């Protein structure tokens, strides 16, 4: 059985009727690096993002000053787009459209011998990060403020993980899953460095809008979990790749342990065994049971961030 999904998407400018094809990730804003450029000072440099994931296209505001709107409502979290939706950035309106159809899987005979997606098993480094207390945060602050905070978080995640050489598999609400398709000293150190920078992003977001957080008497905090393991990796539909397997589920479970253990960054025992030198920078919390697994998992928290993956380096000491 194969999937015969074939879906392309575009934005059509309401003012000019010009169709603009969407890539897997399209940034909308006024800077020259954006895929969709809107030359208007009311539009932020990196205003919004449209990303393909989970079989569809999703709209994310990137912490823009004037907001992104979907069918007249301000976007405060990732929103899946439907054919005919109207997106607004300042006074600029675009209609979202799709070409092609989503259909159920068919046999090779029925599809005329279409190409079968290649799924392979590969070792990866996995990173999951989630905003702590997001439900409380979303209930405690105004929608416009929430949109700016979450948008800034999305934007920083995308930038930090891209610079670290990771692939962002998906955003799920306030959570992000990313991966590196090699397990070696470079990818291991890149994952830990990305975690450090994500924590620094939280500090930046807090100081950017202290009025929001002081009013509700809380910090802006995240949990980060990093793990290694073999996953099934490949194209599940045309133009779309994803990961499946127990290591993915375990990384999400590890991230939930950050709240129980009161730590912001947790590493699995498998990660530490791949990079023994990092053990001196960590605290061993022993073996913990996580939901959905019979066997426990060894868990480490990060006390110090090493400068690079080699023994004898002097680590940095951030508050985590």
Describe the SSE topology.
Blueprint: E1 6-13, E2 19-21, E3 25-29, E4 36-37, E5 48-53, E6 56-61, E7 68-70, E8 73-74, E9 79-80, E10 86-89, E11 92-101, H1 108-111, E12 119-131, H2 134-140, H3 143-163, E13 167-172, E14 175-180, H4 185-208, H5 210-215, E15 222-237, E16 240-244, H6 246-261, E17 265-268, H7 269-274, E18 282-288, E19 297-302
Parallel strand pairs: 3-4, 15-17
Antiparallel strand pairs: 1-2, 1-11, 3-5, 5-6, 6-9, 7-8, 7-10, 10-11, 12-14, 12-15, 13-14, 15-16, 17-19, 18-19
Helix pairs in contact: 3-4
Describe the structure concisely for a colleague.
This protein starts with 5 loop residues before the first strand and ends in an 18-residue tail after the last strand. The protein has seven helices and 19 strands.
Describe it for me?
This protein has 320 residues and is of the alpha+beta class. It is built from 7 helices and 19 strands. The strands form 3 sheets. Strands 12, 13, 14, 15, 16, 17, 18 and 19 form an 8-stranded mixed beta sheet that branches. The protein has a 6-stranded antiparallel beta sheet with strand order 2-1-11-10-7-8. Strands 4-3-5-6-9 form a 5-stranded mixed beta sheet, covered by helices on one side. α3 packs antiparallel against α4 (185-208). The radius of gyration is 21 Å and the shape is globular. The N and C termini lie far apart (47 Å). 37% of the residues are buried. Mean pLDDT is 83; it is low at 1-6, 102-116 and 309-320.
Features:
320 residues; alpha+beta; Tumour Suppressor Smad4; Alpha-Beta Plaits; 26% helix; disordered N terminus
């Amino acid at each position: 059985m194969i999937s015969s999904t074939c879906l392309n998407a575009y934005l059509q400018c309401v003012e000019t009727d010009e169709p603009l094809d969407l890539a897997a990730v399209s940034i909308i804003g006024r800077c020259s690096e954006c895929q969709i450029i809107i030359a208007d000072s009311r539009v932020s440099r990196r205003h919004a993002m449209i990303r393909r994931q989970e079989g569809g296209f999703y709209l994310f505001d990137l912490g823009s000053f004037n907001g992104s709107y979907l069918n007249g409502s301000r976007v405060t979290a990732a929103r899946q787009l439907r054919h005919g939706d109207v997106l607004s950035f300042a006074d600029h309106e675009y209609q979202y459209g799709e070409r092609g159809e989503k259909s159920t899987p068919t046999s090779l005979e029925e599809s005329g011998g279409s190409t079968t997606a290649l799924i392979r098993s590969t070792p990866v480094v996995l990173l999951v990060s989630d905003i702590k207390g997001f439900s409380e945060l979303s209930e405690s602050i105004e929608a416009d403020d929430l949109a700016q905070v979450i948008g800034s978080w999305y934007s920083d995640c995308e930038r930090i993980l891209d610079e670290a050489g990771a692939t962002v598999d998906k955003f799920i609400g306030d959570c992000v899953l990313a991966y590196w398709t090699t397990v070696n000293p470079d990818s291991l150190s890149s994952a830990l460095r990305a975690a450090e920078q994500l924590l620094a992003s939280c500090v930046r977001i807090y100081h950017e809008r202290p009025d929001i957080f002081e009013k509700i008497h809380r910090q802006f905090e995240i949990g980060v979990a990093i793990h290694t393991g073999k996953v099934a990796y490949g194209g599940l539909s045309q133009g779309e790749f994803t990961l499946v397997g127990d290591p993915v589920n375990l990384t999400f479970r590890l991230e939930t342990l950050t709240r129980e253990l009161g730590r912001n960054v947790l590493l699995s025992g498998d990660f530490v065994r791949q990079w023994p030198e990092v053990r001196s920078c960590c605290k061993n919390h022993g073996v913990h049971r996580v939901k959905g697994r019979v066997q426990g998992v060894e868990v480490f928290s990060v006390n110090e961030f090493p400068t690079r993956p080699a023994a004898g380096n002097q680590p940095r000491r951030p508050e985590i």
